[in-house]
Write a structure and sequence with these properties.
It is built from 18 helices and no strands. The chain is mainly α. The chain has a single domain (11-186, 209-389), classed as MFS general substrate transporter like domains (Growth Hormone, Chain: A, Up-down Bundle), CATH 1.20.1250.20.
Length: 401
């Protein structure tokens, strides 16, 4: 084997180690949340909350995430990225402990805020790390692979959560969730670090560049933010809808959660490859179409098969970031990628923050089907805009759709 071949093999092994390390950490961390994520809203109801309380908790968590993206934007350009990622993924252990001992839905509110603070600080670092660790012509595929890990975990974890609930009770789930969350950061101890080229710049310089965004990029941010906001209107209420309207119990809802995240995993990988092959516009349009059809089937068909199909398709609510994040990462300059991504994430959180509350008001005061009806109509408008503009870069090499 020649030196050149050895170097090439080394690059492949390094790429595999780094992406796989993030993949496994993401997957185990997701498994911890997956044990209860699909019945999370029901946990809030059991602690004395209502649909509006669910909306408040999700909305406040997004505001906290918004604030934490700002230090995240600075840190991703100032210090090594691996420690940021490890600390970020470990912070939710505090939240899980609080959830285990919670006696009021207000305790859930505090736990959720801490969870999202950690997520916000680490968000820009994770997206930047995956982007720079990926081959230039396979960025969306790499994101699809990494994000499919949590989706696969969410297939298995809700089933385990259902089993734990059946054998003991819902609160016992948090003991298992804590053990998984503690182990998740260990998978990133052996990945290579990324030292930002801008680490010698001051925070003031980084923040100054943060807001220097081209008009075309600004348009993409606005569009993606609106898509994320529309989908977030329904996210907390799917499980409540299945319980209230379809009459399913906690165990059955958790099992359907596995079906939903099976949809997330399948759609994450499929649409990721579609984006690399056909372009970003096609991938984003596919996300919106699947969501709209899922809403239509959920509301229009009552039998079990209709519920299974709709929940599978609405898994796209969690898989949409597989498409939106890499396209956003591709479109921005490399030396300010973390900063630009932070602006995108901040705008996304601000737009999403009121949506669960609005969804809760619609659910409680208008009707349980209305969060899905309003979201589907808004998504249809966004689909038309996406198809008219057709200007989303699909790869780092600069090809467009």
């Amino acid at each position: 084997m020649t030196e050149t071949e050895k170097d090439g093999l080394g690059e492949k092994l390094a790429y595999g180690k780094n992406i796989l390390g993030v993949f496994y950490a993401y997957t185990i961390a997701a498994s911890s949340m997956g044990l209860f994520v699909f019945v999370y809203s029901l946990v809030i109801l059991d602690l004395g909350g209502d649909a509006v309380s669910v909306g408040i908790i999700f909305s406040v968590s997004l505001v906290v995430a918004t604030i934490s993206y700002i230090p995240g934007a600075i840190l991703v350009h100032k210090i090594r990225r691996k420690p940021i990622m490890i600390i970020s993924i470990a912070i939710p252990t505090i939240s899980i402990l609080m959830l285990y001992y919670a006696t009021s839905w207000l305790h859930v509110l505090v736990a959720e805020a801490i969870w999202w603070a950690g997520t916000g600080i680490g968000g820009p670092a994770f997206i930047t790390y995956i982007t720079e660790a990926s081959p230039k012509n396979r960025v969306m595929s790499s994101f699809g692979f990494v994000y499919a890990g949590p989706a696969v975990a969410y297939i298995v974890a809700p089933l385990m959560g259902a089993l734990v609930t059946y054998l003991w009770d819902m609160r016992t789930i948090f003991i298992f969730a804590l053990a998984l969350r503690i182990s998740a950061p260990l998978f990133m101890l052996f990945i290579d670090d990324q030292i930002p080229s801008t680490c010698k710049e001051s925070a003031k310089q980084i923040l100054g560049r943060l807001f220097k965004i081209e008009r075309k990029t600004t348009w993409t941010i606005v569009l993606f933010v609106l898509i994320a906001a529309v989908l977030s209107m329904c996210t907390p209420y799917l499980s409540i809808f299945l319980s209230d309207v379809r009459g399913l119990n906690d165990v059955q809802v958790n099992i359907l959660g596995a079906v939903g995240f099976l949809g997330t995993a399948f759609l994450s990988i499929t649409i990721g490859f579609l984006g690399d092959k056909k372009g970003g516009t096609t991938a984003v349009a596919a996300v919106i179409v699947v969501f709209i059809i899922g809403c239509m089937v959920l509301l229009g068909i009552d039998p079990l098969m209709g519920v299974l199909i709709s929940v599978f398709m609405m898994g796209i609510m969690w898989g949409a970031i597989t498409v939106l994040d890499p396209i956003m990462a591709i479109k921005v300059p490399e030396d300010s990628r973390g900063g630009h991504l932070s602006v995108y994430l901040i705008a996304e959180s601000l737009a999403m923050a009121p949506m669960p509350f609005i969804g809760g008001m619609l659910y409680d005061h208008v009707g349980p089907e209305y969060p899905f009806i309003v979201a589907a109509l808004a998504a249809a408008v966004l689909l038309v805009i996406v198809l008219v503009r057709r200007d989303m870069t699909s790869t780092l090499s600069g090809t467009s759709s």
